[in-house]
Amino acid sequence: MKKRTFWDIILGINNPHKFREQAKRFLNREVLIYMQNYGKADWRKTEAIADYLISNSNFNFNDKTIQKWFAEIGFKSRISDATHDLRLLGYPIIAGNGKKGYRYADETISDLTEVWTSRWELWQKDIQNVAKQREIDLKLLDAIIEKLTKPEEKEKKEILIEIRAKYRKNEKQEN
Known about the structure:
The protein is mainly α. 69% of the residues lie in helices and 3% in strands.
């Protein structure tokens, strides 16, 4: 018998795994329908997708089980997971920067090149953010290494020096 998690108990249903699969499948289908109908014309925010799901779905949002399921992670995370799952299935749904939301960016939209160019620019920002985080980590790591001065901390210091070398090695490989 499978061990039940805290959230399985909170949901209060006999087969939480099956419920989650069905709910996820249904949510993915509804998000896809919304994005294909409305996401081609303009960016759609998470709030608009949530409003659509609440007003036009077969989910009974007054049902406590459904409310608990969304409360477990959150509505925004559920929609984000659904768009990610749909991307893995091959649907061209992309996320915009800032608070733009999501877009269904297939070959039929008029501003196809602009949408995909903005998506590429987001990836470049992510690469820059990773580089900034690495620099911060290296500074913090250097500060910690300097503070390890006691003889009994020699082993920890050597391990941290090796880790610092790995950070720098990865940095040189990416450049």
